[in-house]
Amino acid sequence: MSARPTLTADIRKTTGKNANRKLRAQGIIPAVFYSAQGNNKSIQVNETSLTKVYAEAGRTTVLDLEINEDDKKHRYPCLIWDSEYYPTQNRFQHVDFYGIDLDKELKIRVPLEFSGVAKGTKLGGQLEIYREQIQILSKPDTLPKKIVVDITDLDIGQGLRIEDLRMPDGIRASYEINYAILMVTVPGSAKDEEGESATV
Fold first, then answer.
1. Phi, psi torsion values for 134, nearest 5 degrees
2. Residue 24 structural domain
């Protein structure tokens, strides 16, 4: 297995809006590390380093967060769990890191990518997409960035539900209701009500 991305962090000694504003002006992003053991830490990370690691890892690749604390470096496997951006800029304002147990499954939401052109659309059908992301269960080191769905063979009147999706090895879809993902409908026909109203 290739080495995980590494991001260095320092303990954040000051908190509050004014303190965080000063950090951001220096190119430092305030953050919180939520430990799997409940020992949460207020931290800060370099904005340039964070942006680089996020471009590589996204939210579904495990990274090593190396926190400098008490003149020691402590390394934690984690995910970038949540983030806040500037309203008018694609720049981080705040980030939450989630410490994980590499031996336990995680439930996480990932996007769907639809591959191919449904043959029913070539005959006049209309592709109705009801879900563009799903929840999955997976060990942290096998989390996919997305689930690719081949729709090439779908004819008019055919669709896919969550249980129809082919998952990569070691990954399971998480759901209670077998909800609709998409359907090739006849133009002008009523949409699949279950597909529109079902929730993940």
1. -140, 165
2. 6-99
